């Protein structure tokens, strides 16, 4: 039944793309490998169909992902808001409309949106919704859409698809690494993707500021609830002292989650004085999407996020308490 309705949604999404032109393509704020890969994969697909499109994100695409776009550039809304509005929108990897951030402001009142995503918490905010919660990454859905649309798998498109799979599965290790993920990855490798090069670039290499931040982050490692909950925190001061960027915090949460006996690992990042972004990771016992939702966030059972007001200490106090309740 799931498969049937997915096929129907694939056809609807394909029809939406064929029928329209002049698309705005947007992914979530602070794009990760799947968001960046999905944005550029969508661009290559629209290009192959001879469509016009504009790529926009609220902020910058992390530098390491930019080569995926080839000649494409992504308009940074926060730096140069476009002067025009868009009526035809494709959002990728966004669980809810709010995830596109300020890009909301350049959408026409009567805009039509195609929502392509893989989050279980996706609230079907599009006119057409192509959402598959058992897909490991949005690029997995885009792969199916490319097949439906008969789009050729070029080297550029393949790199984008492989990158989204690689990064959202933590290097093909997380529980979302399904047979289908490995089948698509195998297909991409067979078509010439250099998997080891992408893995080194996106999973192995660390910048000096990133390692410095890791050192500081690890020194904050704390435990609660009988060592079943662990967390790290990063203050604005830590960022300033190390010269690290937001992207340099990628993966830091895993050091809390990976400690033996820990059920929920978290990273608390001070975004502005009084605003803390929380990343939650679960070993599977606790549904961290549920916990994140209580703070206005969301995500997946094993990986979720939310933003909490207050100082780092206050945010830690509030969220650690809620996590404790979920572990009872
Ligand atoms: P991260 O901790 O890496 O920022 O996010 C982990 C997962 O939770 C991702 O799948 C991401 O899409 C989701 N997520 C993170 N922050 C938020 C948020 O504020 N709202 C929602 N709905 N999902 C979030
Ligand atoms: Mn994703």
TrEMBL record:
GO molecular function: hydrolase activity; nucleic acid binding
EC numbers on record: 3.1.-.-
All copies of domain DHHA1, residue ranges: 241-323
Boundaries of every DDH domain copy: 23-164
EC supergroup of this enzyme: hydrolase
Keywords in alphabetical order: Hydrolase
Protein name: Bifunctional oligoribonuclease and PAP phosphatase NrnA
């Amino acid at each position: 039944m799931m498969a049937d309705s997915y096929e129907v949604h694939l056809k609807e999404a394909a029809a939406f793309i064929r029928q329209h032109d002049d698309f705005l393509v947007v992914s979530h704020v602070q794009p990760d490998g799947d968001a960046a890969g999905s944005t550029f994969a969508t661009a290559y697909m629209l290009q192959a169909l001879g469509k016009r499109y504009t790529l926009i994100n609220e902020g910058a695409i992390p530098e390491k992902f930019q080569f995926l776009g080839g000649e494409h550039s992504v308009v940074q809304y926060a730096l140069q808001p476009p002067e025009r509005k868009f009526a035809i929108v494709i959002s990728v990897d966004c669980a809810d409309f709010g995830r596109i951030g300020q890009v909301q402001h350049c959408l026409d009142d009567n805009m039509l949106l195609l929502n392509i995503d893989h989050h279980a918490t996706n609230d079907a905010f599009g006119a057409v919704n192509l959402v598959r919660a058992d897909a490991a990454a949005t690029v997995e859905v885009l792969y199916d859409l490319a097949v439906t649309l008969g789009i050729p798998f070029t080297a550029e498109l393949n790199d984008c698809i492989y990158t989204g799979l690689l990064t959202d599965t933590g290097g093909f290790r997380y529980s979302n690494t399904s047979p289908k993920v490995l089948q698509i990855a195998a297909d991409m490798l067979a078509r010439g993707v250099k998997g080891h090069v992408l893995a080194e670039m996106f999973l192995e290499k660390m910048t000096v500021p990133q390692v410095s931040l890791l050192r500081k982050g690890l020194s904050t490692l704390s435990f609660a609830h009988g060592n079943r909950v662990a967390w790290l925190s990063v203050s604005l001061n830590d960022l300033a002292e190390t010269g690290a960027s937001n992207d340099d915090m990628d993966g830091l949460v895993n050091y809390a989650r990976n400690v033996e006996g820990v059920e929920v690992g978290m990273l608390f990042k001070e975004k502005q004085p009084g605003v803390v972004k929380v990343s939650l990771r679960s070993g599977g016992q606790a549904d961290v999407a549920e916990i994140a939702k209580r703070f206005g966030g969301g995500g997946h059972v094993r990986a979720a996020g939310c933003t909490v007001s207050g100082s780092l200490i206050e945010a830690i106090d509030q969220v650690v308490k809620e996590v404790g309740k979920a572990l009872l």
